[in-house]
Design goal:
seven-stranded mixed beta sheet; 2 domains; six-stranded parallel beta sheet; Sorbitol dehydrogenase; Quinone Oxidoreductase, Chain A, domain 1; 28% helix
Length: 347
C-alpha cells in the first residue's frame, strides 16, 4: 500500500484543494479505515463558508468531514473485536474517559473531547483515517456505506428523543425538516410516537417527512404554525417540541406551541446567541427546556436500527460527489438547500 493518500484540504474560505498527505499509522488500540463515504454536515458548510463556529476557528490547512464509514484495512496490536475487511461506521468524538462527565456517561460534555472536523482536529475528507476500535462499529452486509455514514446525524435524533423522555401517545412537533429534523422524526417513530408534526419552508422536505411517517406537515410560509398546532391539539399544544432549524423565530415559537408541563428540546444553533424569549409563558406553563449537544451512548443503538432495517437513511441522500469535487459538494450544500437534503462525498 502506498504511504500517501489523497485529502480534500481546506486552504481558506470557500477554498478546498486535493493534496497528497501521509497515511496515518494505527496505534495499539486503533484501526486504520479506508474511507468510503462522508456526509456533508451543516457544520462542515459553516466552517467552509464562514471559517468559524463560535470560538472554534479554522486555521488552514484543515480537513472537514465527520459523518463517515469505511472498511478496516489494518488493526493495532491490541484490537480484538475488529479485523481487516470489516465494514464499519465511526463515532467521531473521542472523550478523555476520565473526567466527571465521562464517568457519569455524559461523555459528549467532556471538555477534552477530540471531535473530527472541529478545529484544530482534522476530519475525514480523505482516503484513510485511524480511529479507536472502541468507537468503531461493524455494519451489516446489506447496509451501504452511504447509509452507514448517516448513523452520525441519526445519533443526534435518537439522543434528543431519549433526553426528551417522549412516550407513545404523546404528540411531538419537529421544527425544521432538514437532515436533523428528519432523523428526529425517524427516531420518534422508532420509539413508538405516531403523532409527529413536521414544519419547514421547503415543500420537498415536508414531502420527505410525510413519506417517513409524519402524520401532519406545515409549510410555515403558507400557514400559521401556532394556529395549526392549536387546531390539531384541541388548543392544548404539543407534549414536546424539537427545534432543529437553528432559527431565532422557531426557537421563540417553542414556548407558544408547547402544552402546559411540556418539554422544549433545542438542537439547532441559531445565528444569534442572545434574543428575546417568552420567559413568563415558559414559567407559567412550567416548561422543561432541554439543550442537546451532539450525543452520548447512542451509536450502538442507531447501528442496530440501521442493520435491522428499522430506519430509512438511504432516501435522505439526494446528491453525491467524488472526493476530488469536495469543494463543489460543500458549495452545493450551501447554495441548494431547497433542492437537497443530504449531500455525500464518496471515495
Amino acid at each position: 500500500m502506498s504511504q500517501q493518500m489523497k485529502a480534500a484540504v481546506m486552504k481558506g474560505i470557500k477554498k478546498v484543494e486535493i493534496e497528497n498527505i501521509p497515511i496515518p499509522k494505527p496505534k495499539e488500540d486503533e484501526v486504520l479505515v479506508r474511507i468510503k463515504s462522508v456526509g456533508v454536515c451543516g457544520s462542515d458548510v459553516h466552517y467552509f463558508i464562514e471559517g468559524r463556529i463560535g470560538d472554534y476557528i479554522v486555521k488552514p490547512p484543515f480537513i472537514l468531514g465527520h459523518e463517515c464509514s469505511g472498511e478496516v484495512v489494518e488493526i493495532g496490536a491490541g484490537v480484538k473485536d475488529l479485523k481487516p475487511g470489516d465494514r464499519v461506521t465511526m463515532e467521531p468524538g473521542i472523550p478523555c474517559g476520565k473526567c466527571e462527565n465521562c464517568r457519569v456517561g455524559r461523555y459528549n460534555l467532556c471538555p477534552d473531547v477530540i471531535f473530527w472536523a472541529t478545529p484544530p482536529i482534522d476530519g475525514a475528507f480523505c482516503e484513510y483515517v485511524t480511529h479507536p476500535a472502541g468507537f468503531t462499529y461493524p455494519i451489516a452486509d446489506q447496509v451501504s456505506f452511504e447509509e452507514a455514514a448517516l448513523v452520525e446525524p441519526l445519533s443526534v435524533g435518537m439522543y434528543a428523543t431519549r433526553r426528551a423522555r417522549v412516550e407513545p401517545g404523546q404528540t411531538a412537533l419537529v421544527l425544521g425538516s432538514g437532515t436533523i429534523g428528519l432523523v428526529t422524526i425517524e427516531s420518534l417513530l422508532a420509539r413508538g410516537i405516531t403523532k409527529v408534526i413536521a414544519v419547514d419552508v421547503v415543500d420537498m422536505r415536508l414531502q420527505k417527512a410525510k413519506e417517513l411517517g409524519a402524520f401532519h406537515t406545515i409549510n410555515s410560509q403558507k400557514e400559521d404554525v401556532v394556529k395549526t398546532v392549536q387546531d390539531l391539539t384541541g388548543n392544548k399544544g404539543v407534549h414536546v417540541v424539537f427545534e432543529t432549524a437553528g432559527s431565532v423565530a422557531t426557537t421563540q415559537m417553542t414556548a407558544e406551541v408547547t402544552k402546559r408541563g411540556g418539554r422544549v428540546v433545542l438542537i439547532g444553533l441559531p445565528s444569534q446567541s442572545e434574543f428575546n424569549f417568552n420567559i413568563i409563558k415558559t414559567i407559567d406553563k412550567e416548561l422543561n427546556i432541554i439543550g442537546i449537544f451532539r450525543y452520548a451512548n447512542a451509536y450502538p443503538g442507531c447501528v442496530d436500527l440501521l442493520n435491522s432495517g428499522r430506519v430509512d437513511l438511504k432516501s435522505l441522500i439526494t446528491h453525491r460527489f467524488p472526493l476530488e469535487k469536495s469543494q463543489e459538494a460543500l458549495l452545493f450544500a450551501h447554495e441548494h438547500k431547497a433542492e437537497s437534503i443530504k449531500v455525500v462525498v464518496n471515495m
